[in-house]
Design goal:
heterodimer; A: 315 residues; mainly alpha; globular; B: 491 residues; alpha+beta; Dipeptide-binding Protein, domain 1; Dipeptide-binding Protein, domain 3; 3 domains; 11-stranded mixed sheet; 13 helices; 28% helix; 23% strand; disordered N terminus
Chain lengths: 315, 491
């Protein structure tokens, strides 16, 4: 087990190093000058030069890369060009929206998908299966931002149960904060739950066709008992993979939903920073998201090993 | 759309029930969030939209009709040669941190703005200032290197507000000014709150608290107004919804003028646009009203030169470049382009440019000019078009007030280099007499219109959607500001 963890850790570090170079180069080659963006149409050339100097934009590419990576290793993500606040503070603030939102959406999606997938598998070919397959087909097909707008029309404009967007802030209390994340979380969870339920169903059906299930049935277990005791655990591996991918996606990919509900999350921070050429923020947030994705994959790998003992010794 | 009717009915019920208590706070939404809160070191209009006249004040200020009125300076005397201005400051003015505002603060602010290493986006406003002297605590004397008839106007800009050396270090996060509202809190990405300043030296604000909320997406903006999450949306981003709000008794719609001349900027040094006949053909090929109707849903006033139509000195020259495709074709033929030509049309993100660009492209095609449209982000636009001058045509709204002077800058992105115009501009800068200034401004407008420097399209209008009971909002926007000092709720 220890060897397995060590191997995974090395591959995690290599991925991070490669990612930092790629991100830095990609972001730095984008045309556009943050100083020009900040000073607008009437700025004089010497004012621009003075600002560029203040922002530390005049160093060579290598100097700037090293100072960025060196800073990050000490937990210093640099200072935003436009906001003039430490990037770590900005990320910290936005994280308190993006992380709970992702966890909320993932919880919803799992709570819906597991029972739905298991039910569909146990009802294979019958009404429950057809119903789940039909509804999830729709869930995968409907774009989440469109579904979000429909929910806003119904629950915010018409029924007035929720506000149309924005974030109440954690200092307003747990209830109001969770309430303002509810519609976005549902919008994010719906397609994820549909995908997850379908994966759950087919993975369960695969393991139900295995020899060991036949053996279990032969021992006298009912179909349901065999499913619960033997098939479910084996069916979890592909499901865990999908959950891992979904979590990273929810953390980084909520940009559109954050725009629909004007939530000040990480996605919108990246979006605004790209437009303003606040490169240091873009680099640091993207790096952080890459780190999160790699870390989640690392944890999923560990979870495989827990679920499937063969992986601990084999690979 | 029955749910909307239902929503309206239920909202009316809520409004009748809630009308009894006058509110003392307001939530105003706008599209863009300020990057930071120092109006003296960035061009971002959003900074002024939140802070101008609410938190920060200058020596002079813009009134809602665009005229210049006293601000922190209660009165001033101008020497006969026009070279020195002596300002008497209001007495008893305190910054929000409790320190006094006096002549030394004025000297500090102006010297900082015009310093060698200044990051002021409008440094040129202070170009004519030779020296600022604090005569005594309540008197400031500004000496100019050459007469400047625009000085009082320049000092009213948000970039010229008075700041204190004691609080300058943290100004970007915690602005300290002298205004009727104090900065209270900023939840980045979501909102900024201001609270009433009880020690204000002038007429106190009527509201206790103002929340500025930032909603960039047009669909989200619609939902926020309809769900009454916000009380006012200043600069509502989707003009197509305006009729719907007009028909809804919960709301009032205020359509005001801005200082934004929206123009089809033309690269005057790039062939074939270096030929005045080609530029004249462009001007006659454009149907302004079709652009206003198609791109702005009818909001906007046609202009024939680079000047705001609500300004008393405006000359209506739209007739000089009236829509006449036949004439445009004839002019092109005279210039040697009977077969037409192909050029680039580079469009920045705002909807006036993206929507207007498609319409202009279609109109130009009618007279034989083909355009290759490229959509650019602002940062790309600044790099390629504004700085690199690598473009044939572009559409942009010039939102700075009274900015006809940009035509005197030969290196400006449309590259209009005309000695006669530059001489007129120098004369204007040195002229303090209002009648003579007015005459000069008229000549300048005619000159650029006659030279067809750019295609003059329309003055950008700004729709504001507000709850029906909100009073005291500015109608027009002589500068980018949401002056909340006079805003209140009707009983």
């Amino acid at each position: 087990m220890l060897g397995f963890v060590a191997r995974r850790l090395v591959s995690l570090l290599v991925s991070l190093a490669v990612a930092s170079v790629v991100i830095f180069l990609f972001v730095e080659v984008v045309p556009g000058d943050p100083a020009a963006y900040m000073l607008g149409l009437n700025a004089a050339e010497d004012t621009l030069a003075a600002l560029r100097e203040q922002l530390g934009l005049n160093g060579t590419l290598l100097e700037r890369y090293l100072s960025w990576v060196g800073g990050m290793m000490q937990g210093d993500f640099g200072t935003s060009y436009t906001y003039r606040t430490p990037v770590s503070e900005m990320i910290g603030e936005r994280m308190w929206i993006s992380l709970p939102l992702a966890v909320y959406a993932l919880t919803l999606s799992t709570l819906i998908a597991f029972p739905a997938g298991i039910w569909a598998a146990s009802q294979r070919g019958r009404f429950g299966d057809l119903l789940v397959m039909g509804v999830t087909q729709l869930g995968v097909a409907i774009p989440n931002f469109w579904f979000a707008m429909l929910m806003v029309l119904l629950f915010a404009i018409n029924l007035r149960w929720f506000s149309a967007g924005g974030f109440a802030g954690w200092e307003a209390g747990f209830g109001p904060a969770v309430k303002s994340l509810t519609l976005p979380a549902i919008a994010l969870a719906l397609p994820q739950a549909s995908i997850l339920a379908r994966v759950m169903r087919s993975s369960l059906l695969d393991s139900l066709g295995e020899d060991y299930i036949r053996t279990a049935r032969a021992k006298g277990l009912s179909r349901r008992q065999a499913l619960r005791r033997h098939a479910l655990r084996n069916a979890l591996i592909p499901v865990l993979t999908i959950i891992g991918l979904q979590f990273s996606f929810l953390l980084a990919g909520a940009i559109i939903i954050e725009n629909v509900f004007y939530l000040p999350g990480l996605g919108r921070l990246v979006f605004q920073s790209i437009a303003a050429r606040d490169l240091i923020v873009v680099e640091s947030v993207v790096m952080l998201l890459v780190f999160a994705v790699i870390l989640v994959n690392f944890l999923v790998d560990l979870a495989y090993a827990l679920v499937d003992p063969r992986l601990r010794v084999g690979a | 759309m029955t749910f909307l009717k239902y929503a309206t009915a239920s909202a009316l019920a809520v409004m009748v029930a809630g009308a009894a208590a006058a509110k003392s706070d307001i939530t105003l939404a706008m599209q863009l969030e300020p990057p930071h809160l120092d109006p003296t070191s960035a061009a971002a209009g959003a900074i002024d939209s939140v802070l101008y006249s609410n938190v920060f004040e200058g020596l002079t200020r813009f009134a809602s009709d665009g005229s210049i009125i006293p601000g922190l300076a209660q009165s001033w005397e101008i020497s006969d040669d026009g070279l020195s201005y002596t300002f008497k400051l209001a007495s008893g003015v305190m910054f929000h941190d409790g320190t006094t505002m006096d002549a030394e603060d004025v000297k500090f602010s102006l010297d900082r703005a015009r310093a060698e290493d200044s990051a002021n986006a409008q440094k040129a406003l202070f170009g004519s200032i030779a020296e600022v002297v604090a005569v005594d605590a309540g008197t400031v004397k500004i000496t100019l290197s050459a007469p400047n008839g625009s000085l009082l106007f320049n000092l009213a800009w948000g970039d010229a507000v008075i700041v204190a050396p004691e609080s300058i270090e943290n100004i970007k996060q915690a602005p300290v000014g002298t205004g009727a509202f104090k900065f209270d809190n900023w939840v980045q990405g979501d909102n900024i709150t201001l609270a009433r300043n009880p020690e204000y030296w002038g007429t106190p604000a009527k509201l206790d608290k103002v929340t500025f909320k930032f909603i960039s997406d047009p669909t989200a903006a619609f939902a926020a107004v309809m769900a009454e999450d916000v009380d006012v949306f200043a600069g509502y981003p989707a003009p197509e919804n305006v009729p719907q709000f007009e028909a809804d008794a919960r709301f009032q719609v205020i359509v005001g003028n801005t200082e934004g001349e929206t123009i089809l900027s033309t690269n005057n040094k790039m062939p074939p646009f270096d030929n005045v006949k080609v530029r004249a053909a462009l001007a006659h090929a454009i149907d302004r009203q079709a652009i206003i109707d198609g791109a702005m849903f009818g909001l906007g006033t046609p202009i024939g030169t680079h000047f705001a139509p609500h300004n008393p000195d405006y000359v209506d020259l739209t007739g000089e470049s009236a829509y006449d495709p036949e004439k445009a074709k004839a002019l092109l033929a005279e210039a040697g382009f009977a077969e037409g030509f192909t050029t680039t049309l580079k469009l920045p993100p705002p909807s006036y440019a993206r929507r207007g660009g498609e319409i202009i492209a279609a109109q130009l095609r009618e007279v034989g000019i083909e355009t290759e449209i490229t959509n650019l982000e602002w940062a790309q636009w600044l790099e390629e078009v504004f700085k690199g001058k690598d473009y044939g045509l572009t559409i942009v709204s010039h939102t700075e007030p009274m900015d006809i002077g940009i035509y005197a800058r030969p290196d400006y992105y449309f590259q209009y280099d005309d000695a006669e115009f530059q001489a007129m501009n120098s004369a204007l800068e040195a002229e303090a007499d209002l009648a003579k200034r007015s005459a000069l401004l008229g000549q300048m407008q005619r000159k650029i219109s006659g030279d067809y420097v750019n295609g003059y399209l329309f003055q950008l209008a700004i729709p504001t959607i507000a709850k029906a009971a909100v009073r005291g909002l500015w109608e027009n926007a002589p500068t980018q500001a949401n002056d909340m000092t006079g805003v209140y709720w009707a009983e």
